[in-house]
Amino acid sequence: MTRDSDPFTEYAAEYDRWFDSAEGRDIFSREVECLRNVMPSTKGRWVEIGVGTGRFAEALGVQEGIDPSAVMLGLARGRGIETVEGTGEQLPFADDCFDGVLLVVTLCFLDDPKTAFCEIHRILKDTGRLILGMIPSESPWGELYARKASQGHPIYAAANFHSCDEVLDLADTTGFTFIKACSCLLTAPEADIKADRSTPKIVKNAGFVAMAFTS
Questions:
Q1: pLDDT at 5
Q2: What are the tens digits of pLDDT across the range 191-212?
Q3: What are phi and psi of 83, to 5 degrees?
Q4: Is 82 part of any domain?
Q5: What distance in Å separates the CA atoms of residue 149 and residue 207, rounded to the nearest whole number?
Q6: Residue 191: which CATH number?
């Protein structure tokens, strides 16, 4: 996640409008529900890394956000988020200053995920929580977005999707302890998702998986 390679600035408004489309509303509502199932109260100080336009932070009660895109951050501020420009690999925060960190569909855009996880661990208080939302690479949804990337999609072309096992290994090697998970978007991308319900475990073919870790 670097300022020079940020894929979102040029498409910030288009990206944000997607959440108001029929498809966007359906997918977003299920992802938010899935995250809530693993997320404790946001009491204390929380920050979203890769906050983008602030949609998830606003929905989940996270008051602070960091992102490399100044344009995205302008939209996030309009949603009441306190913002700072920066990257996940070099967080401009003191040690042990946050009770929780939210990381939603940002891992795949990080240049150096291991460094970012070490930085997250550094800024979290003892027993602080990391709540991560991801699109598993091994799922039909991950495969769909990978195909779009290969076809030159302006945002997905910058993404590098990961498997659930890769994320669990990364968290373990950087000092985190897995607590629980929840999965949603269990149908294929072309199917009607209106009947989709969250499942309280990791489902590797799910379109979205939320995981909770403690530092």
A1: 47
A2: 888 778 899 999 989 999 999 9
A3: -120, 155
A4: yes
A5: 16
A6: 3.40.50.150
Q: Are 165 and 139 in contact (CB under 8 A)?
A: no
- Is residue 102 pLDDT above 60, yes or no? yes
How distant is the alpha carbon of residue 42 from its chain centre? 16
Q: Is the pLDDT of residue 2 over 80?
A: no
CB 95 within 8 Å of CB 40: no
pTM score of the predicted model:
0.93
User: Among residues of the chain, what percentage have pLDDT more than 90?
Assistant: 76
Q: β-strands 64-67, 124-134: how paired?
A: unpaired
Does any domain span residue 2? no
Q: Which two tokens stand for residue 189?
A: 């991308």
Find the helix or strand (DSSP H, E) in which 87 lies.
Answer: none
Q: Are 138 and 209 in contact (CB under 8 A)?
A: no
Question: In the chain, which ranges are E strands?
Answer: 46-49, 64-67, 82-85, 98-104, 124-134, 177-184, 208-214
How many domains does one find in the chain?
1
- How far apart CA 164 and CA 134 sit, in angstroms, is 8
Report the C-alpha gap between 107 and 197 in whole angstroms.
24
70 part of a folded domain: yes
In which domain, by residue range, is 210 found? 12-214
Q: What pLDDT is attached to residue 154?
A: 76
Task: Quote the tokens at residue 27.
Answer: 């997918």
